[in-house]
Specification:
mainly alpha; 2 domains; two-stranded antiparallel sheet; 2 strands; 4% strand; binds zinc ion; transcription regulation; bacterial flagellum biogenesis
C-alpha cells in the first residue's frame, strides 16, 4: 500500500516540515493504539526507526515485538478469519472509494469500524479481535499485489475475500455455509486433525437448487445491513475456539 496523499518527506537532506512530522506522529500514535507492529509504522510514515520505537515504548510501556510479520495468505481463507477479513475489507474499500479518507486513513478508520462491529453487543472490548491491525494492513497489501480478490456469494450476495483467480461462479461464503466443524471445541478438533481448508472448499457447483435468492442481503458494508453483519460476527465468534 502506498502512503497517503502527498509524497512523504524524505528522511535525508531536505528539511522536514514540522506540521508534516506532527501529522505522522499522530498517525503513528493512532496505529500503535490499534495494535500496529513497528514494520507497519515504518512503511506508512517517514519517521525514523528510533523515533517510532521510542513512541511505541511511550504508548505501550514496552518494547515493540520483534520478528516477522504474518505473511500467510491462507490465513485469510480459514472460515472465521475470512468472515472478519471480508467485513473489514468491504468497509476499507468503501472508505477509500467514497470518503475523503484514503489509503492509510481508510485503513485506520475502516479498522475502527471493524472493531466496533466485531465487539458489538458486548459490554466491553474483551480479548483480541480475530483480525489484528497488522493483519488488516497485510490484507490490503495482498489485495494491492493482486494475490486476493473479492468473490460474491451467490446466496447472500455479500463479497468475500478469496484467492485471486478463483472461479467466481457458484461461490458460497463461510456465513451461508459454515464448515461442519464450526462450533466444535479445540480439543475435539485436535483429535480429528482436520485437513487444511482453502477457498475451494466454500465453492459449490452452480445448480438450480443453489440459485441466488433475490431477497438476501447485499454487499456487506451497505447501510441497513449492520445488524446482519453483527449477528453473523457474533455467531461466528461464539465458535471462535476453532480459529487459528
Ligand atoms: Zn453468503
Amino acid at each position: 500500500m502506498s502512503r497517503s496523499g502527498e509524497a512523504p518527506a524524505k528522511k535525508t537532506g531536505v528539511q522536514k516540515s514540522v506540521a508534516k512530522e506532527a501529522e505522522e506522529i499522530l498517525l503513528a500514535t493512532e496505529m500503535i493504539h490499534l495494535g500496529a507492529r513497528l514494520q507497519v509504522l515504518q512503511a506508512e510514515t517517514s519517521l525514523s526507526y528510533d523515533r517510532l520505537a521510542r513512541l511505541y515504548r511511550e504508548i505501550k510501556g514496552c518494547s515493540p515485538p520483534k520478528g516477522m510479520l504474518p505473511f500467510s495468505v491462507d490465513w485469510f481463507m480459514t472460515w472465521l478469519p475470512n468472515i472478519h477479513s471480508s467485513v473489514f475489507y468491504n468497509v476499507y474499500r468503501f472508505m477509500d472509494t467514497h470518503t475523503p479518507s484514503k489509503k492509510v486513513r481508510a485503513l485506520v478508520e475502516g479498522y475502527r469500524l471493524y472493531l466496533e462491529q466485531a465487539f458489538v453487543g458486548r459490554s466491553e472490548q474483551v480479548g483480541e479481535p480475530v483480525l489484528s491491525f497488522t493483519r488488516a494492513w497485510m490484507l490490503i497489501r495482498f489485495f494491492d499485489s493482486k494475490l486476493l480478490q473479492l468473490s460474491a456469494c451467490e446466496r447472500c450476495h455479500g463479497e468475500f475475500v478469496a484467492h485471486a483467480h478463483d472461479p467466481q461462479k457458484g461461490f458460497v461464503c463461510a456465513i451461508c455455509r459454515p464448515p461442519p466443524r464450526a462450533g466444535k471445541t479445540r480439543a475435539g478438533e485436535r483429535r480429528t486433525q482436520p485437513r487444511k481448508r482453502d477457498a475451494t472448499e466454500v465453492q459449490v457447483v452452480a445448480s438450480a437448487q443453489g440459485a441466488a435468492n433475490e431477497e438476501t442481503v447485499g454487499a456487506l458494508p451497505k447501510a441497513g445491513r449492520k445488524a446482519e453483519v453483527a449477528a453473523a460476527l457474533r455467531a461466528a465468534s461464539e465458535a471462535k475456539t476453532l480459529s487459528d
